[in-house]
Amino acid sequence: MSVNETGKVFIKGNEAVAMAALEAGCKCYFGYPITPQSDIPEYLSRELVKRGGVFIQAESEIGAINMLLGASATGVRAMTSSSGPGISLKQEGISYMAGAELPGVIVDIMRAGPGLGGIDASQADYFQATRGGGHGGYRIIVLAPASVQEMYDLTMLAFDLSDQYRIPALVLADSAIGQMKESIVLNARKQISLPDKSWAVRGRAGDDQQNVVKSLYLGDGEMEAFHWKMHARYQTLSDYECRWEEVMTTDAKLIVTAFGSTSRIAKTAITMAREEGLKVGLMRPISLFPFPKKAYAQLSDHCKYFLDIELSTGQMIDDVRLSVARDAEVFFYGRPPGAGSLPTPEELLEQIKKFYQTVISHQGD
């Protein structure tokens, strides 16, 4: 890795994740190779041990997530990564981590599915990521980068939020973001300040009380109390940790909404639409859980038309519909994997024009 004259480095999105993990103080990585995320374990297998960390290529994705659970229980920062099929195998372990209130970072570089699918870019892991994915009605923090810089920045943020709220955090990107190269600015942390982890398992020292990390609650009312405790934590996340980006939404008659790689293309498309005199804006959620519901609701006070664009047949659209005002209308344009390429700005511009004409005709009624 070389630093250019501007102090930036030119790297892949996956490598940015690995570098951010090191800067965030990650001490343990457990994973298993799968395209298109294998650059992450490859980088960490070389660099993590140089910093005194532990790298283990597990026997399976199931083994990797349970190693993450064990390492996290001791209080160290730890991470795993995979793609769709591997993340599916990790779901039981993620549920156990959520049930034991354990932090830990999981990275999902999405590929086409279901089943083995293919290695094309896809956003069809949205439901799995934002609905918890496993059993028991839990949620986890989900952050969606749209650039290599954000792959770096949001990975560091994922470690911080996960520790702060004692909830697993997932960085959700697709193969386009994972494999592309861009210049980024690094944020070298001189000292990692971790929150107190008095709950961590450290064995028994002298007469100190021995900590036990568990997800089993059999006492009268214990499980109900635990669920309400977690629910309150999710509400706190919604109040303080929602993140999003707005572009030219103030006077927009149609707001395009998209996340990840699709939002990059959409941003170019709305700029082209503006050049043609169309009042179009962009709303990009960065935190998919907590979803920025209030921001959508406020936008729908003055703009009643939204166009949701996804690399799927539609998943985030459910959250958009639940967030906007009742009198708002949400259109959809999807490109599920298999088309062979990402949509172009020109393609999205044509869709914007199509739905914009619908908006104008509705406003004329």
| CATH homologous superfamily title of the largest domain | Thiamin diphosphate (ThDP)-binding fold, Pyr/PP domains
Uncertain segments are none
What structural class do the secondary elements suggest? alpha/beta
Q: Termini distance?
A: 59 Å
| Main sheet summary | 7 strands, mixed
What is the global morphology?
Answer: globular
Number of helices: 13
Strand content: 15-25%
- Compressed to H and E, one letter per element, the order equals EHEHEHEHHEHEHEHEHEEHEEHEHEH
Draw up the topology in text.
Elements: E1 8-12, H1 13-23, E2 28-31, H2 39-47, E3 54-57, H3 61-73, E4 78-82, H4 84-89, H5 91-99, E5 104-110, H6 126-130, E6 141-143, H7 148-165, E7 168-174, H8 175-179, E8 181-185, H9 222-240, E9 244-247, E10 254-257, H10 260-275, E11 280-285, E12 287-289, H11 293-302, E13 305-310, H12 316-323, E14 329-334, H13 345-364
Parallel strand pairs: 2-3, 2-4, 4-5, 5-7, 6-7, 10-11, 10-13, 13-14
Antiparallel strand pairs: 1-8, 6-12, 9-11
Structure explained in plain terms:
This protein is of the alpha/beta class and 365 residues long. The chain folds into two domains: 194 residues, 3-Layer(aba) Sandwich (Rossmann fold); 121 residues, Rossmann fold. The protein has 13 helices and 14 strands. The protein has a seven-stranded mixed β-sheet with strand order 3-2-4-5-7-6-12, sandwiched between helices. The chain has a five-stranded mixed β-sheet with strand order 9-11-10-13-14, with helices on both faces. Helix 10 links the parallel strand 10 and strand 11. The radius of gyration is 21 Å and the shape is globular. The termini are far apart. The mean pLDDT is 94.
